[in-house]
Amino acid sequence: MVSAWATGNGIVLGRVKSEEKSNEIAAIPRLLQLLNVKGCLVTIDAMGCQKHIAEDIQGAGADYLFAVKDNQPTLNVEVATIFEHCRRDRKAFARCPP
């Protein structure tokens, strides 16, 4: 079962059951299609850190915050590198958050 929570309100906005012999990666896009996430920040744990899910969220007009763990070593290193560059010199790295 994959659920969408409104953390500020403490309520469930929607739920989608994962198909048998499947996982939440397949259910997340179906849940996103049911919700109006435009202007929202969507957070997902490391399992949902997938390119197609990020594209779906951006396509719906929302932003995302994904957890990255060691099971995605290349991405983990890339993210760590970006933050290290930002820490050293924010002006030199265009993707640094404000």
Explain what you see:
There is one protein chain. The chain has 98 residues and is an alpha+beta fold. It has a domain at 2-67. The chain has helices spanning 24-34, 51-59, 73-88, and strands spanning 2-6, 11-16, 41-44, 63-66. It has a two-stranded antiparallel sheet. A two-stranded parallel sheet has the order 3-4. Helix 1 (24-34) packs parallel to helix 2. The chain is globular, with a radius of gyration of 15 Å. The termini are far apart. The mean pLDDT is 86.
Secondary-structure-based class equals alpha+beta
Provide the β-strand percentage band. Answer: 15-25%
Note the main sheet: 2 strands, antiparallel
User: Numbering strands along the chain, what is their spatial order in the largest sheet?
Assistant: 1-2
User: Low-confidence spans: pLDDT under 50, at least 5 residues?
Assistant: none
H and E order:
EEHEHEH
* Gyration radius, rounded: 15 Å
This entry's quaternary arrangement is single chain
The end-to-end distance, rounded to whole angstroms, is 36 Å
Helical residue percent band: 25-40%
- The total count of helices amounts to 3
Mean pLDDT: 86
Morphology call: globular
How many beta-strand segments?
A: 4
Short account of what is shown:
By secondary structure, this protein is of the alpha+beta class. It is 37% helix and 19% strand. It contains three helices and four strands.
Write the layout of secondary structure elements.
Blueprint: E1 2-6, E2 11-16, H1 24-34, E3 41-44, H2 51-59, E4 63-66, H3 73-88
Parallel strand pairs: 3-4
Antiparallel strand pairs: 1-2
Helix pairs in contact: 1-2
